[in-house]
Amino acid sequence: MHNVRELILAQAATYCDREYLVYKDQSFSFAELDLRSRQVAHGFVELGLHKGDRVAVLISNRPAFLFVWWALLRIGAVMVPINLKLTGGDIADIIDHTEARAVVLGELFGQSIQMLAPRCPGVAHWIRVGENGADPSVQGFLERYDDPPDATIPILADDPALILYTSGTTGAPRGVIHTHGDYLLTAESFARTIRLSPRDRLLTANALFHVNAQFYSCMGTLFAGATFILADKFSASQLWSWTRRYQANKLVLLLPLTTTLYNRPPLPDDADNPVQLVVAGGVPAGCHEDFQTRFGVKLQTLYSLTEAPLGVMSPPDVPCRPGAVGLPMPVGDHGENEIRIVDDRLEPLPNGEAGEIMIRNPAIMKAYLKNPEATANVLVDGWLRTGDRGSMDDDGWIRFLGRTKDVTRKKASQFK
User: Fold this and answer.
1) Closest by alpha carbon to 385, among 362, 411, 365, 409?
2) CA 72, CA 141: separation in Å to the nearest integer?
3) In Å, how far are 65, 233, 247 from 62, measured between CA atoms?
4) Cα angle 359-361-367, degrees, rounded to a multiple of 5
5) What is the DSSP letter of 91?
């Protein structure tokens, strides 16, 4: 399999009318997602978008995000999902930096065109999701194209599929370039590591503009033929009731969210839920066993980066190890996933000694957009310098010990 379009087609043919996406009271089968993304792809082609064109996306967690995302993947265009918490000026900077030819705006951002358009003269098309009378719009594509043909342009595994901007915690945000192959390899590895199957129902409230929700929850369930349950936003007070309502047996969270859940006052029914497995960056230090007992779940810990979504996870059959994250995620027959702990000269350190974590595998980022200097600084002989401190136990378990540099946030306008 060379690209995500082939994966979508294969799963739509295999699982057809089985439920794939659940969002509130809406449900979409594999075949329905296939059709809707084809319809939107047809609309994009009619507008003149081509393979390699960059399209910025400002849509919150809802089905339309997937319609648009998968449509872009089908025609070989490159999605630029933008953090919805950014200011208008920062959003304009990203659109300008990527030279996006089109921007797709959700309901919350339709009025932003008047502010963004003068700052983004290179944008040929401003596409709304579903406002009445808006043209072009995603809703218009869905209504206009009944049974459109699929795109036939060749797409290779190494073709760009995504430009995802880092948070800028240690410098100006950078546009991380990922490929179709990165999506496929990470999805397969994640699905195998947590043993996803077509019987599973995985829920997340993580933002779809983030690497976590894209590579793991969405692509992982698509690869496995499982059901993907999408919440519009996180709610600590409602999360467990959502798992009961949708019968979710797997849950993917970010570390701050597990901490929020754990810090809530305990309730008698905390463990009264169908969840068997929680995948997260971790829980508050020293609370692994208590978290699992209190909520009646198995915890699998995860360490990854925007630049390296195929990272480190704890194995499914062993207990979590306090203070450690896990082992390198498997890559199967596609190569190796290697982790090193190195000193300031990038020389490997003995087990147990703290240093910088480096990762090498076929799914690390290809480059930072328009920033060869920063790319050369972090990609060394195929190894990614993470900027994170860690150590390695004698049996290969990785311990995350924090950043190697002081964290300093800078404005998103400071692009290189």
Assistant:
1) 365
2) 13
3) 6, 10, 19
4) 80
5) H
**For residue 249, pLDDT beyond 50:** yes
Residue 275's contacts (CB-CB under 8 Å, 6 or more residues apart) are: 240, 243, 248, 249, 250, 251, 295, 296, 297
| Residue 338 main-chain phi, psi, to 5 deg | -115, 140
In 3D, which of 213, 251, 257 has the Cα closest to residue 234?
257
Q: What is the b/e burial string over 205-228, where b = at least 16 CB atoms within 10 angstroms of the residue's CB? A: bbbbbbbbbbbbbbbbbbbbbbbb
How buried is 268 (Cβ within 10 angstroms: 0-12 exposed, 13-18 middle, 19+ buried)?
Answer: exposed
Tokens 């089908």 found at? 74
Query: What is the rounded CA–CA span in Å between residue 364 and residue 123?
Result: 29
Token pair recorded at residue 406:
């002081």
The whole-angstrom separation of Cα 264 and Cα 262 is 6
- Token pair 């190890």: residue: 321
What integer best gives the mean pLDDT of the chain?
92
Is the pLDDT assigned to residue 200 strictly greater than 70? yes
Residue 409 has pLDDT above 60, yes or no: no
Identify whether the C-beta of residue 164 lies closer than 8 Å to the C-beta of residue 97.
Answer: no
Q: d(Cα 179, Cα 406) in Å, to the nearest integer?
A: 31
Kindly tell me if the per-residue pLDDT of 385 is higher than 80. Answer: yes
DSSP secondary structure code for residue 334 in this structure: G
CB 214, CB 136: distance < 8 Å: no
Half-sphere exposure of 4 (CA within 13 A, CB side): 35
Q: Which conformational region is residue 296 in: left (phi greater than 0), alpha (psi within -120 to 50 degrees), or beta?
A: left
